[in-house]
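Have a think about this chain, tokens included, and walk me through the fold.
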Amino acid sequence: MLQPTQTDLAFYVNVYHDVDCLTECLTRLREIYPRSRLILRADGDLNPAIARIAQEYNGESYSGERLFTIDKGGAIVHEMLRLFLSANETAYLFKIDPDTRIVRPFEALPTLPCVFGTLQHQGELFSIQGGCVGFTLDIA
């Protein structure tokens, strides 16, 4: 396990009609991780507030067609990884939702290549909860 530094982490937030949640999410994020990379992507949401909020929180702002739909398959994941890898690579990427609340710094992160987060299961089916999913650089 690795104790991460601010510059080891990047946070990606996909925004679609939930701008009202961003202020609380990003305020808490910046209180704990003021120097970490922040990527906001407007997923078919034309609200100009998204770019202003990204700038206010020292983040990058991107927009594009709506990708988080069943008929687009994994296009949203490809776009997230493309933006993450496009510049300023960090050791870890965290996909968080606009309503995610960061409450404390990560104490340790995995050093092996993996996708990680809070496990959930139903019967024998296991998955990672979607509100905060971590990726090591080697997986991306």
